[in-house]
Amino acid sequence: MAMRSGLKVKRQRQEGEENIVPLINIVFLLLIFFMLTGHLAAPEPFDIDPPESAAESDSGDRTAMVLVSENGRVALDGEEIDVAGLSAAIVEKLKATPGLRLHLKADGGADAGEVVSVMETLRSAGIAKLTLLTAARLQ
Question: pTM to 2 decimals?
Answer without folding.
Answer: 0.59
